[in-house]
Write a structure and sequence with these properties.
This protein is of the alpha/beta class. It has a single domain (15-224), classed as Rossmann fold (3-Layer(aba) Sandwich), CATH 3.40.50.150. The protein has 8 helices and 7 strands, in the order ααβαβαββαβααβαβ. It has helices spanning 15-21, 25-42, 59-66, 78-86, 124-134, 149-155, 171-176, 199-207; strands at residues 49-53, 70-75, 93-96, 109-115, 135-144, 183-191, 217-224. The chain has a 7-stranded mixed sheet. Strand 1, helix 3 and strand 2 form a beta-alpha-beta unit. The protein is globular and about 45 Å long. The chain starts with 14 loop residues before the first helix and ends with a strand.
Amino acid sequence: MPAPVSQPGIDCLDPAGYDAWYHTPRGRWIGETEYALAARLLAPRVGDSLLDVGCGTGWFTRRVAADDLVATGLDPDPVWLDYARVHSSPALSWVEGDARTLPFADASFDHVLSMAALCFVDDERRAVAEIVRVARRSFAIGWLNRSSLLYRDKGRRGGSGAYRGARWHTAYELRALLSGLPVRNVKLQSAVFLPSGTRCARWLEHGLPAVLPWGGLLVLHGEKA
């Protein structure tokens, strides 16, 4: 599983370049918008444990920890994990592992988060089943949306830049991935409708309901049955 690349406009796959993008005005807005959607769906309590699957440089893992959750980041790439360790608090945990065979016992974490990492994983269904298995209460999985402006710009003909090789899904396809798994109260919402990050895009983002399935990021949320 390659390092996750979920955000529009990233054309550099090295850890430093990826992480630096979040410090740009556009990158910070998109990252915070995506995180806000996932956090609303998960509704964690202070002190809850959370696993970030496909954490890459750990931006979302660190963002979770900033909300006083006990965060663990998992990624298969040791180079990206080394970057995450160096640039994070010692209180965070980092584990090298495969999303398809998570090295944790059943119900190990209150919540599991994965932000557009499974788009690069072979056998997505198996990875989703693993996420459900290790979640105690709920999970939120972000995917690249084939019914979005972002797909028209970055996803067609095999993808461009950091999106090359990524799989893009429809809402119907994502719901099907949960078939037969022990989940309930499944929700599917989206964010980043206009990935340009302009003032107009930010204004529209606040006015468009997340239930509209056209944002660049689709987040599939469910509770453990």
